Amino acid sequence: MGLIAAIEHVIKKPIWDCQMCGQCVLHDTGMTCPMTCPKTLRNGPCGGVREDGHCEVKPEMRCVWVKAEDRSRNMPLLPTVWREHFNNLRPPVDNRLKGDSSWKNAISGRDKETPPGWTPATEAPEAEAKA
Amino acid sequence: MSRLGELLDKGDELIITGEAPVIDGGTLEDYEAKLAELALWCDAMNATDNTAAHAHASNVAMAIAMQRVGVEPILQVVCRDKNRIAQQADIMGVALHGVENICCLTGDDVTAGDEPEARRVFDLDGPQLIRLANSLKEGRYLSGRKIEPAPSLVIGAVENPATHPLDYRAQRAAKKILAGARFLQLQICYHPERLEAFVAALHLNGFTEKCAILPSVVAVKGPGPLRFMDSSVPGISVPAETIARVADADDSAEEAYQLVLEQCQHALALPGVRGLHLTDFRKDGSISRLCTDLGIRPRSERESRANDFALAN
Ligand code: SF4
User: Fold this and answer.
1) Which of A3, A58, B46, B270 has fewest C-beta within 10 Å?
2) Contact B111/A at CB under 8 A
3) Rounded distance, CA B285 to CA B152, Å?
4) Topology of B3-218+271-304 in CATH?
5) pTM
6) A54 in ligand 1 pocket by Cβ < 6 Å?
7) Taking a C-beta distance cutoff of 8 angstroms, is the pair B155, B102 a contact?
8) What ipTM was reported for this prediction?
């Protein structure tokens, strides 16, 4: 792990239990790390959330996405555009970036690179759910 | 094109899908017999992918088996057991056998099954898998590598209208529809008001025109399976009154049947619902009784009537 990654880890681990995926989406997910979901889901809660709002896999833990959804709506000071990004379709994780500094990858734009087959041939900008 | 695909293109006729029983041993003939009743009524049936994280004959093998005995399969693909490479291979593999319908799921966790010590994969999540299937349909692997000719695929997904965050579930469904899902099989829901709110939110925003909403019903014989689903199936809760209604009835089996019948009637009356997804745990002919009571005609009749109509026009 490089120096920047080490600094990022020291800061983000205690606050968000950051898993160092190297492609941070915290701002779009109500400042809740989706990689702490046992299924590492990037696009919202699975269908297994318990009646008490807790996780299917870890009954003692509140579902990460129940928390994220709540925060993305109600957290004070969260910029509106971040709230609006909540429903974006986030691309698959690039597993090569694990352990990297997401700050570094955000500056270089590396964290936005997706495989060529990801962007639909027919689609222009990223669609957003509005239901 | 698959019958399901044709029905989706038409945009108005009823769609009935079903959950094919899992395969644990036996021959193709045995399997054909097991499918027989549901096959009478369903336009297509799910070739399930290790349901509830229990190993069974694979989704791919099951889809091919169904194809061979004349039942239209829907290949279920979950994200728990395989990475994106294997998932693409499975979809391309069944396409070779003429299977077109694909249903994309995140899937239950390994801890829901009988081998909770297994490694979970979840390389992709459900919405990402829908987009991936659409890439294949457009003639490209995720890498961008060309597929010629592109497989003809009819892509769908699932959603749970009955669990938390309740207000968010329709948005998640919308996300899947925008990613390319043309049908959504809903998780079984024992809270009618939750199903109503979910479907209404999609309908109001025009999503039910783009995607067929198929609520699930499960035919059970008594209070046992209801209690089991409530306590042990992730994301399903059954209200105590509903369990008591069946448990306290003089004839529990009949009361359980009436409950399913009411669920179907309720779901089909909601604007925006295109049909039903049927699961049969009773195996006593109840599916035929149910469809008859609902005024649904057997698949063969619905198919030929539609053809006659098309010819007449
Ligand atoms: S219940 Fe929530 S935290 Fe648990 S696996 Fe599903 S989405 Fe992740």
Assistant:
1) A3
2) yes
3) 35
4) TIM Barrel (3.20.20)
5) 0.94
6) no
7) yes
8) 0.93
